Amino acid sequence: MRQDNRLSCVLHVLLHMAEAGGPMTSEALARALNTNPVVVRRLMGGLREHGYVHSEKGHGGGWTLSCQLDQVTLQDIYEALDAPRLFAIGNRSVETECLVEEAVNHAMSGVLADVKAQLLARFGQITLAALHADFHQRLAERHAPATLCK
């Protein structure tokens, strides 16, 4: 099963946008992700609908943040992406007449629900500001200029 990396990609571009201090084109953000600008526009659509980003067309336009980094959590962004599937594992079948499979499903479902709740609770504790601060700490430790990824 293929990994869903949309949350990681969106967090990545949001931090680049925070550093830019002005509009960033889909093309510039796509270069940071090593992907196509169309992919960036699709990713950003849900964020725009939730009010986290804004876009302007034309010369000097692009994507800008329309939120405060300390007010937005990873859980907020996860939900803006329509809550992508978190786990690649799951029950073999939902409806079964096999009592063994029912027991397996019951155990698996309970554990997965617990872990999902814990993961989302942790996402809710991490703000974009915390990620931004971590980036700046790493930058200072490496004595490197802040540039877009290549």
Walkthrough of the structure:
By secondary structure, this protein is mainly alpha-helical. It has a single domain (6-142), classed as Winged helix-like DNA-binding domain superfamily/Winged helix DNA-binding domain (Arc Repressor Mutant, subunit A), CATH 1.10.10. It has helices at 6-20, 26-33, 37-49, 74-80, 99-123, 128-142; strands at residues 53-56, 62-65. It has a two-stranded antiparallel sheet. It comes from Acetobacter senegalensis.
Query: In the CATH hierarchy, what is the class?
Result: Mainly Alpha
Proportion of β residues?
A: 5-15%
Strand order of the largest sheet: 1-2
Estimated radius of gyration = 19 Å
Main sheet: strands, sense, barrel: 2 strands, antiparallel
The structure class reads mainly alpha
**DSSP strand count:** 2
Helix content: 55-70%
Number of helices: 6
Quickly list its features.
150 residues, two-stranded antiparallel sheet, Arc Repressor Mutant, subunit A, single chain, elongated, Rrf2 family transcriptional regulator, WH_DNA-bd_sf, Tscrpt_reg_Rrf2, mainly alpha
